[in-house]
Amino acid sequence: MKKLSIVLLTVIGVFGLNISASAHVTVKPAVSQTESYETYTMKVPNEKDILTNKVVLVIPKEVTFYNYQPIPGWKVTTDKTKDDKIERVTWEKEKNAGGIDVGQFQQFSFDAKNPDKEGSIDWDAYQYYEDKSIVEWTGDSDSDSPHSQTTIEKAAEKTDSHGHTKVTDTKDSGKESTNNTNTIALWVISGLALVGSVMAIVLSTRKK
Question: What is the full DSSP assignment across 63-82?
Fold first, then answer.
């Protein structure tokens, strides 16, 4: 019985952690590239039995916020610094809208420019409920309410504000060009081999 109890407690603990982790506010992608214009998506699940009516996202100092995807039923406002840089974005449900109900989640997408240095950026978020309670997703990864993080890696390709990609690493570009040339050569050789095989079959048929 003791062993069975330990097993059950372990299973409950594991599933409890997974449920708790799934209820966190997250910002994706978890990995992006330096100086790229990235489309980020913040996922906000409802972790209580009360309606979520507002979410505030703090934009990291190294990140430049540009625009957002409008969502019916949600009003968006921004707070700016003295130098006119957006530092906080607020999504708040409109009067006749439903908000995020029990067992639901909502996704909020926006465009931003990544920093020019490698490292990680922290996404602090504040989730508001109708009973005026607030969950602050601002802690470290091992806390009860961790903030989401994005790792910024050195870019081989950089995405501009129009969504176009540019190769920034000439070495990788050369490798890609070489690979494309090799691929074309293989296709040519394969085609010639196929033609030769067909001709051999035709000549063999004629002889018979």
Answer: -EEEEE---TTEEEEEEE-T
Q: Are 129 and 51 in contact (CB under 8 A)?
A: yes
Contact 162, 42 (CB under 8 A): no
User: What CA–CA distance (Å, rounded) separates 95 from 107?
Assistant: 19
* 24, two tokens: 């966190």
In angstroms, the CA 205 to CA 168 distance is 56
Question: For residue 91, what are the CA distances in angstroms to 56, 83, 147, 205?
Answer: 6, 23, 17, 75
Q: Using CA atoms, how far apart are residues 14 and 93, in angstroms rounded to an integer?
A: 34
Distance CA 100, CA 93 (A): 9
Tokens at 153, concatenated: 């890696």
35 burial type by CB count under 10 A (0-12 exposed, 13-18 middle, 19+ buried): middle
b/e burial code for range 174-185 (CB count within 10 A of at least 16 → b): eeeeeeeeeeee
The predicted-structure confidence for 39-56, as pLDDT tens digits, reads as follows: 999 999 998 999 999 999
Distances (CA, A) of 30 to 36, 38, 123: 14, 11, 11
The gap from C-alpha 57 to its chain's centroid, in whole angstroms, comes to: 15
Would you give the end-to-end CA distance of the chain in angstroms?
A: 83
Give percent of the chain with pLDDT exceeding 70.
65
